[in-house]
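Re: the 257-residue chain
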Amino acid sequence: MARRLMGCLLVVATASLLSACKQHSDKPIAGLLAAGAPVLRTQGKEQRTVAVGAQLTGDVVLTATGPAVLEYFGGGLRFLEKGDTLEVGDADEAKLHGSNLPSHRWVEGAVQEAPRALRIVAARYTNVQMTPKSAHEDAYSSTQYFVAFFTPNGLQRMGSDTEHEGPHTPLPAPPFRPKVPFIHAGDLGEGELVAVVDDGFVVAETDDLATAVLLEGREVPLGRTVRLLVPDGAEVILKSKDGSEVEVEGPVDLRLR
C-alpha cells in the first residue's frame, strides 16, 4: 500500500513539475515580421488573425495558412509554411541570442559576407495582438481593417470617418508618406532592383518597416527594401536596371543598403 501511495505521489509530482516547466512568461518574446497569408492565433475555441507587427508571448499557439516569419527578440527567425502549428515559446529560435541566418550585404551588384546587424528587436513591434473579432464578419470593411493596422494611430481612429484613410495607390513620395514606427504589412515601393523568387518564398523589409512575402514566379520591384530574408532552400534572382542578374540562395539575411 505504501509503495502504491509513493508511486502515485511520484506521478503527481512529476506531472506538476512538467506542467510548471511548460508555463511560459507573459512577456512578449517575438513578433510577426511578415505573412503572405493569415496567421491564426488559437484563443479558446476560436482562431483569430494575428496582425503583422504584433508582439507574441510564449504561450501563444499559431497556425499558418501560408508563408510567414516570426522574429524573436533575441534575434532568431522562424519561418512558417502553410499548415504549420507552433507554440511560440517552444521554438528553438526562442533561445537564440543573435540571428540564425548568415549575414550578407549587396555591394555593387554582388553579394558579400557582412557582420551581423545589431538591433533592438522588441522596439520594432507593437502590443496589438490580433485583428478585431469583427474582422471575421462580412460587415467589416477592408477600409476599416487597413485603418486599424496599416496606418499610424489606426486603432485610435476606429469608429471615426474612415473614407479617406488607409493605404494609397501609389504611395505618396517621401517625405509625405506617413511614418509608421513599427513593423507593418505594406507596399515596398517602385523601382530599384527587381526580385523573382525561383523556389520557396522570400521576405522583404523596407526602410520604413513595411514587410511583404514574395512568392514564386512573380517579378516584384524592391523599391525601398533594405533587407531580404531568404530561408534555407529558397532561391531568389535579383535583377538590376542594367539587365544583370544575381541568384541568391538561402539561408541568408541580405542587406541591400
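The CA atoms of residues 53 and 178 lie 17 Å apart.
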